[in-house]
Specification:
Blueprint: E1 5-9, H1 16-25, E2 29-34, H2 37-43, E3 49-52, H3 60-63, E4 68-71, H4 84-106, E5 116-122, E6 133-134, H5 144-157, E7 165-171, E8 173-175, H6 181-190, E9 203-204, E10 206-208, H7 209-221, E11 227-231, E12 237-238, H8 239-250, H9 260-267, H10 271-275, E13 279-280, H11 283-287, H12 297-305
Helix pairs in contact: 1-7, 4-5, 8-12
Length: 308
Amino acid sequence: MSGSRTVVSGATGLVGRPLVTRLLDAGGAVTALTRDLAAGAGALDGRALLARWDGLRVEPEVLEGATAVVHLAGEPVFAGPLTAKRRRRIFASRVESAQSMVEALGRLPAERRPAVLVCASAVGYYAPAGDTRLAEGAASGTGFLAEVCRAWERAAAGAEALGVRRVSLRIGIVLSREGGALPRLALPFRLGLGGRLGDGRQWVPWIDRDDLVALTAAALSDERYRGALNAVAPNPLTNAELSRAVARALRRPSLLPVPGFAIRTAFGGLADELLGSRRVVPQRALELGFRFATERAEDVLARELGAS
């Protein structure tokens, strides 16, 4: 990475911060897109260059001459009820921002464009399929998140017509105590109220944060990485298995299953994302020789929750 410059959106987030650190430690430069320059400087210890943006639009000059772009920013999906307003914000923060990235690339001279765009996507792309293993060629779903993911990936794929290599990372649940789904998942167990969701047989694709950062770095540097890539560990768990593993890590009981109707009442249009079974596997990453440092969710949970 020495001599490179990577533009990163979502640079102060759960995955962005360790990715920026990795790129900088490798000798590269990083331009972090941020809405708050002071907060961005503090979160990144003043090591990265900073460029202001509004979360949707990026100016071509920020991208000009960069080696690569990583687009991780997006409105949190499970941060509240799926109202019409939140649907618009979720869509815009992912799809419109990716479109803006590609439009900005298109306004640059070809010789000044970054060589690669790595853009986040999500396993919500896939249709629930029971116990069937879902590699990158599996069918997409019909719900809101599947529609967002398809549009998100189409927007990023526009970079290919400009001669820019594109990778869309279909990311599973990132298991980290520092944010994302795990703290919310663990809270009921901390209170002694945790349990499986519904019948617990639905598969849950997950990934250790360090592996996700390493996979993103590999996608930046290795030209064989192209198109959709499942960013998940090789061994998904069922929801019941995951619930028991969280309970063991916290030394709490896992006794109270949450019935499906209660989940649908609480989460409305997002209930199918929790109850649907997606046994997503990282077929393409394994074919490319990527080695996951952590393949057992139990090991991640013991590390992230065991000392808390």
